[in-house]
Amino acid sequence: MSIASSGLTCPVPAGEADRVLLGHGSGGKLSAALLRERFLPRFGNEVLSVLGDAAVVPAPGEEIAVSTDSFVVSPLEFPGGNIGHLAVHGTVNDLAMMGADPLYLTAGFILEEGLPFDLLDRVIEAMSESASEAGVIVVTGDTKVVERGKADGMFINTTGIGRLDPRFRPGPTRARDGDAVLVSGPIGRHGVAIMAAREDLRFEVEVESDTACLAPLVQGLRATCGPAIRCLRDPTRGGVASALNEIAASSGVGIRLEEGELPIPGPVRGACEMLGLDPLYVANEGIMVAIVAPDAVEAALEAMRKHTSGESATRIGTVTAERPGLVLLRTGLGASRVVDMLPGDQLPRIC
Amino acid sequence: MSIASSGLTCPVPAGEADRVLLGHGSGGKLSAALLRERFLPRFGNEVLSVLGDAAVVPAPGEEIAVSTDSFVVSPLEFPGGNIGHLAVHGTVNDLAMMGADPLYLTAGFILEEGLPFDLLDRVIEAMSESASEAGVIVVTGDTKVVERGKADGMFINTTGIGRLDPRFRPGPTRARDGDAVLVSGPIGRHGVAIMAAREDLRFEVEVESDTACLAPLVQGLRATCGPAIRCLRDPTRGGVASALNEIAASSGVGIRLEEGELPIPGPVRGACEMLGLDPLYVANEGIMVAIVAPDAVEAALEAMRKHTSGESATRIGTVTAERPGLVLLRTGLGASRVVDMLPGDQLPRIC
After folding, report:
1. Is residue B46 less than 8 Å (CB to CB) from chain A?
2. What is the location of CATH 3.30.1330.10 in chain A?
3. Cys-Cys crosslink for A196: which of A16, A201, A329, B312, Cβ 3.0 to 4.6 Å?
């Protein structure tokens, strides 16, 4: 006789009704309840509610952009957001950096047994809000549960699908001598917020993560500047330094940054000095680097500044034909130093 | 001065060159090396090699099928396969069950610090082989690393995108009174193989996982029987019992199974008796349940039997108008018992 038909099983042990159990990942009744009570009310839409083996959605145009990211940030909640915000913003921003409009998202959850439901609910709520803001719907998902001690609270994978505009294809190989290097907002906030939360550090002014959806900024740039936008990159893991190194290498150009122009907030600078970090390598989750043709600089800055997350957009450097592949930082004293790619991890598990 | 520009860092500690380090998830040089040395040689294709923030692929037709799954199987390797086989088969099979041809796959890896590279290589190799067999390409991916003790070796998420045929849409609501219930192969092998590996049990005859790609079987059914194929379902977590319960509920029909017709291999039956499991609830990773119109039964069985993984395809029951929503098993003695949906987990972390 099966466990199910014995009628003797109490699937949820007393006192455990407020947290995730192994059975929630079984594909049985508890999994169905988790879906019905927690995921569907917040993510519900016509596509997801079918609950088939796969979602069926209209294909947007002739080509699609596809991006995937797993999120393992620690801690799960931090000043300015939680893993749910990152899981949506990280993937929709990757699509936006290709010039694509994010449309569909999948969500795969790996939950640790014992995860409190109220924390899970806050994460789902954050995902739901961020998805609405970004104009994407969660079309399909999956939940697995592992035993206590076999994961760290929760991990989330999101995969995004976006609509491409054949006339707007920014890409890392397109930077040219004389282009301007712009950044859409202050540098270093996300990494410092995570580090402070992790180490329980208190600064005079709390630094909040910049986690935000960049798609509206990109849509603005597309409408205003079109092909004058050469490359877009969101400087997450590895920070602004790594993003610019990748562009310099892919395009075979040099990049010269002006130290005095870098928008590094005072509290970020202070925290980085204390922690021995270089803000150029600290992760961001709500800013982008834009390489823009010289005659489009003012229009691009103006377009970004129309959005809250772009209101302090500014120019930080110039693309050069000299020293191809290298990123150089010119300091206030007129000296230059190479801003190399990071060999290993400065801050692990930042997203 | 940044860590990177100090020139003093040895990113890979001596004696650790054969395993995953936290730095491999940093987005820096070690991440790039991991990608270049391990992932690209096995997954490489024109789309993936661009390494943009997102992949750009042609949209197949007017509608697409999208499926996502995270894999947390323990142990990572087991008789008949490893987590890499499951990560490809699981997602392409979900697409196939919608009647779709799998085309593109994304791969998100969460690696535990210390994971041996040779194990990672075997998993990537398995994914590469399985993807080739299934006719899919890995178009984009992501790797994160968490500290020792914060994951269990590795977790993999795959998301698949498939081409839909507007004239072939099997679905769980389409079962009708009089339809036949077919199964494409022996029941219960995957779950028993995992359980035996986990508990280090030895049986007289080793049971191997059935992990396999079902897309060719579905393509055969589509070509031979078309719309006479009402529903397809791969009975993974929760087994054949859960898959049939979902169909019975979605279609508002009853399902009657004949115990004597269930293709349960002797070693699976023996292992289940020893472990106190019901084979109908044990996970499978390479078989499907097909609900087929009465006049297409022979053609469907013949089509499935042309493929290695379908060679023992057989009929196990009938859809009925009686007892809608219920799955009943008629035993050899003529008695019937209800085969309910499982409340919690019979075997956790089976995929």
Report:
1. no
2. 18-163
3. A201
CA angle B88, B109, B347 (to 5 degrees): 65
pLDDT of residue B62: 87
CA angle B172, B175, B178 (to 5 degrees): 165
**H or E element: which one contains A336?**
strand A336-338
Report the amino acid identity of residue A20.
Answer: V
Domain B18-163 sits in CATH at 3.30.1330.10
Q: Which residue of B66, B198, B282 is the best one to mutate when testing the A interface, meaning the one whose CB has the most A CBs within 10 A?
A: B66
Testing the interface with B: which of A48, A68, A275 to mutate, by most B Cβ within 10 A?
Answer: A68
From B136, B111, B162, select the one nearest B47 (Cα to Cα): B136
B65: left (phi over 0), alpha (psi -120 to 50) or beta: beta
pLDDT (0 to 100) of residue B1: 34
**Omega cis (within 30) before B75:** yes
Q: A186 — phi, psi (to 5°)?
A: -65, 145
Which segments of chain A belong to CATH 3.90.650.10?
Answer: 180-338
Q: Which two tokens stand for residue A349?
A: 């598990």
Long-range contacts of B16-19 (CB under 8 A, 24+ apart): B18/B116, B18/B117, B18/B118, B19/B114, B19/B115, B19/B116, B19/B117
The CATH number assigned to the domain with range B180-338 reads: 3.90.650.10
Query: Residue B197 forms beta bridges with which residues?
Result: none
Inform me whether the C-beta atom of residue B67 falls under 8 Å from chain A C-beta atoms: yes
Task: Please give the residue that has the higher pLDDT: either A342 or A258.
Answer: A258
Structural tokens at position B34? 């991991």
Task: Measure the CA–CA gap between B101 and B92, rounded to whole angstroms.
Answer: 8
User: Please, what is the Cα angle at B157 between A240 and A36, to 5 degrees?
Assistant: 110
Q: What is the pLDDT of residues A328-346, one digit of tens each?
A: 999 988 899 999 987 665 6
Query: Would the CB atoms of B344 and A26 count as touching at under 8 Å?
Result: yes
Q: Rounded to whole angstroms, how far apart are CA atoms A22 and A111?
A: 9
Nearest to B238 by CA among B166, B190, B202: B190
Establish if A52 touches chain B: CB-CB under 8 angstroms.
yes
Token readout for A234 is: 């969101």
pLDDT in tens, B150-171: 999 999 999 999 999 989 999 9
> Coil, strand, or helix at residue A262?
coil
**pTM of the full predicted structure?**
0.93
Could you read off the pLDDT of B95-144 as tens digits, one per residue? 999 999 999 999 999 999 999 999 999 999 999 999 999 999 999 999 99
Alpha-carbon span A111 to A34, nearest angstrom: 12
Contacts of A253 (CB under 8 A, 6+ apart): A175, A176, A177, A247, A319, A320, A321, A324, A325
Q: How many other C-beta atoms lie within 10 A of the C-beta of residue B166?
A: 9
- Judged by a CB distance cut-off of 8 A, whether residue A141 touches chain B is yes
Report the amino acid identity of residue B262: L
For helices B215-225 and B83-97, angle between their N-to-C axes, nearest 10 degrees? 20
A56/B59 Cβ within 8 A: no
* Closest chain B C-alpha to A203 CA, distance in angstroms: 22
Q: How far apart are CA A10 and CA A30, in angstroms?
A: 11
Q: Residue B210's beta-bridge partner residues?
A: none
Q: What part of B 216-275 touches A (C-beta under 8 Å)?
A: 233-234, 236-238, 241-242
- Position A44: which residue type? G
DSSP B87-143: HHHHHHHHHHHTTPEEEEEEEEEEEETT-BHHHHHHHHHHHHHHHHHHT-EEEEEEE
What residues have CB less than 8 Å from B138, skipping those under 6 apart? B43, B45, B48, B105, B106, B107, B127, B131
